[in-house]
Amino acid sequence: MTAKPNPRVLIVNDDGIDAPGILLLEEVVRQFSDDVWVVAPDEERSGAGHSLSLSYPIRVKQRDERHFAVKGTPTDCALLGVYELLGDKRPDLLLSGINRGPNLAEDITYSGTASAAIEGAMLGIPSIALSQIWSYQTPVHWDTARHYTAQILPQLLGLEWTQGSFVNVNFPHCPLDEVSGVRVTRQGMRPPGSFRPIPRIDERHVPYYWIKIAFPDGGAAQGNDLAAARDNAVSITPMQLDMTAHDQLAHFRTLFETEPVGA
To answer: DSSP string spanning the chain?
Structure first.
């Protein structure tokens, strides 16, 4: 995609249409375009992954000409924006976020933020997921996200995008003056155990569960997104939809691609 004046931008998220991150993102994007559309869940849908609403109707509440609250998942929002709500002109760019919390390493598989960008990539639209890393009971450093979103978006707008690719951006959990720089990274992988079911008993003595988030230490390696986060750097990770383990194909062929019996 080459940079164009006044690109049409579709903004989606998983924290909900009234979340501070999506309001900030729209504010920043309006520095580059006045053709900005927001199609986002009517409430938080964190952890929705790449899910679709297949078994119940999706309700949409139009708040004004270009803002729509959707009772559905981030992927639903991306689909509705592209096919229905933006009219007959597709977006030039899909932005998802800015998420409150990290989308690093294996988070991508759970993330509604990343999944909206994945859906955009599947539809052939240049797509970027943006997240502000944050920990519970600590301040959210929105000024860091604001500054670096404005800095990197013009360069990303000018990229020549490869079909089936998207970009995952994470801003570090630190004040703006403590950011160590910007890194282009690969996806990391934490040790197992980030999410665990925790049993509880309600007031009627009926068991239920909460999914507890507790990221284990480890997984940071030179050049990956976890190391960038550790070092207070902005992480920009180019990603792709093709999840084939290419380095294993040759071995699998030796195991399974045998001559047919009687050949």
So the answer is: ----SS--EEEE-SS-TT-HHHHHHHHHHTTT-S-EEEEEESS--TT-TT----SSPPEEEEEETTEEEEES-HHHHHHHIIIIITTTS--SEEEEEEEES---GGGGGT-HHHHHHHHHHHTT--EEEEEE---TTS---HHHHHHHHHHHHHHHHT--PPTTEEEEEEE-SS-GGG--EEEE-B---PPS-SEEEEEEE-TTS-EEEEEEE-PPS----TTBHHHHHHTTEEEEEEEES----GGGHHHHHHHH-PPPTT-
Q: Which two tokens stand for residue 111?
A: 């993330």
Cβ-based neighbours of 127, under 8 Å, separated by 6 or more: 93, 94, 95, 96, 116, 117, 118, 119, 120, 121, 166, 167
Residues comprising the binding site for a divalent metal cation? 14-15, 46, 99
**pLDDT at residue 14 greater than cutoff 60:** yes
Is the pTM higher than 0.90? Answer: yes
**Is residue 1 within 8 Å of 92, Cβ to Cβ?**
yes
Extract the annotated binding site: 14-15, 46, 99
Q: Are 29 and 156 in contact (CB under 8 A)?
A: no
Q: Which CATH class is domain 9-191+218-256?
A: alpha beta
Residue 223: left (phi > 0), alpha (psi -120 to 50), or beta?
left
Residue 70 has pLDDT above 80, yes or no: yes
pLDDT value at 2 more than 70: no
pLDDT tens-digit map of 183-229: 999 999 999 999 999 999 999 999 999 999 889 999 999 999 999 99
Residue 263 pLDDT level (bands cut at 50, 70, 90):
low
